[in-house]
User: Which sequence fits this backbone?
């Protein structure tokens, strides 16, 4: 717009100042608007409808222990509004006290996501596919053996039993599993779900002791999971895991990531969803558990027991390892098309029924829960 003629120099200066004001005010108004928007977002996040109120005491405890409250709330909100479940702790009670009859409901709980860029290392689990896998990764597996003393068949046996060599990483969120166990620290948490057989067969003192010990353990693992997720820049709610919160191709408990995790591909981070890191980490764990001095079957079984304290699990890993060793040497006359797995373990027992829940003996019929009235709200 052209200026009218006849204005004095003073008028022109005043007019120029007036025109400059919007340019100065706009950034200030924009900053003020953004500040206003951020406040409701924070307040909304604290009372987000997607955050299960059952998590609040746990979030407060984590904040007191130094975890960022806002980030923790965002992670728990990702689990959904009804994500807490005492069934995870109840499964541990069943394991320790032998009262079967429970399933874990996943209604309204988001499915965990596979890590970005992740793909299962192999499409099937035959002896031939395992031998081809060893051939493809020969240099890497030789380096692992030279450093940790563990040969390829033992490493593959663990990965096969745990996750089917990465084909099934778990149906639950590791965060949900560990947080649920950490929050289930009193009998009253289980009573609302009321398994009548549990009430009659588990002494109150024993139940309280189990809940106290295992909720404390789960809280420590939960802290380790949050640290691990933060280091990798992941949302822990999206990380798949077993019903007890084990993660990765090798199903490490989060605290074991800190103790035994290895950056196998030298990319500056420990990523147990990456094959190199997972295989190196398994080897380091087995070495720390006494693999170098284990020669006999029984000695090696004890090493596998250190990985997962279940006799059936250790026996299955040992048998699978020996089968692959024999096939690799060419002395066993084992068909390449035959299954690599031994001992009745499916591709990933921990995704549906954790290996530590498996027993050598079946539970007696009298101990089984047959009526839907027991854990009706938790049965699948």
Assistant:
């Amino acid at each position: 717009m052209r200026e009218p003629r006849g204005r004095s120099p003073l008028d022109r200066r005043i007019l120029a100042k007036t025109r400059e004001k919007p340019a100065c005010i706009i950034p200030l108004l924009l900053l003020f608007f953004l500040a206003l928007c951020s406040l409701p977002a924070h307040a909304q996040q604290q009372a987000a409808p997607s955050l299960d109120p059952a998590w609040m005491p746990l979030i407060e405890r984590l904040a007191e222990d130094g975890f960022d409250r806002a980030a923790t709330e965002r992670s728990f909100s990702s689990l959904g509004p009804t994500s807490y479940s005492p069934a995870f702790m109840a499964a541990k009670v069943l394991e320790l006290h032998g009262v079967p009859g429970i399933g874990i409901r996943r209604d309204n709980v988001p499915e965990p996501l596979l890590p970005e860029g992740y793909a299962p290392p192999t499409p099937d689990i035959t002896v031939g596919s395992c031998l081809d896998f060893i051939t493809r990764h020969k240099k890497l597996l030789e380096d692992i053996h030279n450093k940790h003393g563990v040969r390829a068949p033992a490493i593959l046996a663990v990965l096969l039993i745990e996750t089917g060599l990465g084909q099934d990483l778990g149906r639950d969120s590791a965060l949900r599993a560990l947080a649920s166990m950490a929050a289930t620290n009193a009998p009253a948490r289980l009573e609302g779900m009321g398994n009548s057989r549990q009430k009659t067969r588990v002494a109150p003192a024993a139940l309280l002791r189990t809940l106290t010990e295992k909720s404390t353990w789960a809280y420590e693992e939960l802290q380790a999971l949050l640290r691990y997720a933060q280091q990798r820049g992941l949302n822990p709610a999206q990380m798949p895991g077993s019903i007890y919160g084990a993660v990765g191709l090798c199903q490490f408990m989060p605290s074991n990531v800190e103790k035994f995790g290895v950056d196998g591909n030298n990319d500056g981070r420990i990523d147990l969803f990456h094959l190199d890191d997972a295989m190196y980490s398994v080897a380091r764990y087995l070495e720390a558990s006494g693999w170098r001095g284990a020669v006999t079957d029984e000695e090696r079984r004890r090493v596998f027991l250190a990985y997962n304290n279940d006799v059936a699990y250790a026996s299955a890993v040992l048998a699978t390892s020996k089968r692959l060793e024999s096939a690799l040497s060419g002395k066993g006359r084992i068909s390449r098309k035959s299954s690599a797995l031994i001992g009745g373990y499916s591709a990933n027992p921990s995704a549906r029924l954790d290996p530590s829940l498996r027993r050598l003996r079946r539970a007696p019929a009298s101990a089984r829960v047959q009526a839907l009235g027991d854990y009706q709200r938790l049965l699948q």
The CA atoms of residues 4 and 12 lie 10 Å apart. The radius of gyration is 28 Å.
